[in-house]
Amino acid sequence: TTGCFGKWHNGGYYLQHPNRKGFDEYVGFMVGHLGYYYDAIYQHNDRDVKSEGYSTDYFTSQALDFIERNAEKPFLCYVPYNVPHSPFQVPEKYFSKYKKQGLDDELACIYGMVENMDENIGLIRAKLDELNLTEKTIVIFLSDNGPNTFRYNGDMKGKKGNVDEGGMRVPFYISWPRKIEAGKTAQLAQGIDLFPTLLALCSIKYKPVLPIDGVDLSKTIFRKTKNFDRYIYTRQASYPLEGRAGSIRNDRYRLTAANGKILLYDMQNDPSQNVDISGQYPEIANQLLTEYRNWENEMLSQYQLQTTIEAGFPEERNITLPVQDAILSGKVKYSSIHPNQSHTENWTQNNDSIYWKLNMQQAGKYRVELQYGCSETDIGSKFLFHSNADSFTFSIDKAFDSQILPNRDYVPRTESVERTWGWKPIGTISLKAGEEQLVLKLQNKKNKEAALIKAIRLIKINK
């Protein structure tokens, strides 16, 4: 039995849902960002649930329940916490502890988040002890990237988003009492190694459908083989893809290609990357750069940027289209510089619109609902909603006072503030199989601003 509890961040639509990716149970949020950490609405499999309490505590409680229910059979429990991360929210007792030590608000919040997370990990391990599962269970702890601000980082260069050591290197702990000896190894490893390593540790036979990029490190973990050298590749994935920063690392060197500069570092003698030695060792720099470019070209040749949303599957009852995935035109804008979890605002100009590109797996008829906010003084604006071949108009004739949730941030945020939202039925629409473009267009603004708009939801009408 498999369960995932926390931040998914591997796509937000039907095909990418954890239940379609091998997880029997899922509780969490699918988008890449959570804007409010208390009493939030999450997904439990395919339905929304209202949580209680702080996000890390809640995800842990769900994981503990899952472990208890499945203690008598093999299970995989994946708990991807969303902290430490902005917005900077944490229970006050953790924040005040580190403020008293003289840290600024941001660091006090980050350290508080980590302490709270550490306690929750302790609860999970205690549950394994309680159920006599500790010696039967492999426990792994790791992170995804370096810190998102410049703060203590083990004297490593860079932070999240950089291709230097400080942006890439993270801790990896693995525990399996009486199986794995305590200690550490300096073997170069990467996240892609988890899959083949876990298969080997669990003695699972698997016939790959596609080539597996990672390496089975089980013999290294059991100290049955010597460390080996390899190349680890890193590349920024922002768009456009051309000219993005990248790096290549082996046991001795890291070469970075960023901002038009090629830099080479001796990671054994200069782990903080203080001295560029590319001028002293041009042959090594050229060799590593060639290896990196060959890998980069191979990856880009296989890459296809998906600009359409795959939807309309036979079992898919609801299709929720958040505005963060829409294309905006006119003066309409996101409520933040970060589209994730944003809403659209500035609906002040007639003919402004937003649209979504869909690839419908089958034709269908849908009820359409709008997630919105609108003050009493702004009701009355008229919109057009249309697909390639069907359309309807509607007016926002009912106010919904979209309230900002209580401010629990310790540091001013750059993300959108979280609000309450209303849902309004607006019409029905028929969609054909294949490519469809859904457009929401302001036809007649009544007053100051037509609305704040968060999402569109399509609900399949049974034939």
In short:
The protein is of the alpha+beta class and 463 residues long.
Tally of individual domains: 2
Q: What's the name of the CATH homologous superfamily of the largest domain?
A: Alkaline Phosphatase, subunit A
CATH architecture of the largest domain: 3-Layer(aba) Sandwich
CATH topology of the largest domain: Alkaline Phosphatase, subunit A
* Total of helices: 7
Shape: globular
Q: List SSEs in N-to-C order.
A: EEEEHEHHEHEHHEEEEHEEEEEEEEEEEE
Tell me about this structure:
With 463 residues, the chain is an alpha+beta fold. The chain has 2 domains: 226 residues, Alkaline Phosphatase, subunit A (3-Layer(aba) Sandwich); 152 residues, Galactose-binding domain-like (Jelly Rolls, Sandwich). It is 19% helix and 27% strand. Strand 3 and strand 4 form a beta hairpin. Helix 1 packs parallel to helix 3 and helix 2 packs across helix 3. The protein starts with a strand and ends with a strand. The mean pLDDT is 95.
Short descriptors:
single chain, 463 residues, alpha+beta, Jelly Rolls, five-stranded mixed β-sheet, 23 strands, 19% helix, globular
Task: Detail the topology: elements first, then pairings.
Blueprint: E1 2-7, E2 25-29, E3 41-44, E4 47-50, H1 55-69, E5 76-78, H2 92-99, H3 105-130, E6 139-142, H4 165-168, E7 172-175, H5 194-201, H6 218-221, E8 232-235, E9 246-249, E10 253-258, E11 261-266, H7 282-302, E12 309-311, E13 318-322, E14 327-329, E15 333-334, E16 344-345, E17 353-360, E18 364-373, E19 382-386, E20 391-395, E21 422-431, E22 434-444, E23 452-460
Parallel strand pairs: 1-2, 1-5, 12-17
Antiparallel strand pairs: 2-3, 3-4, 6-7, 8-9, 9-10, 10-11, 13-23, 14-17, 15-16, 17-22, 18-21, 18-23, 19-20, 19-22
Helix pairs in contact: 1-3, 2-3
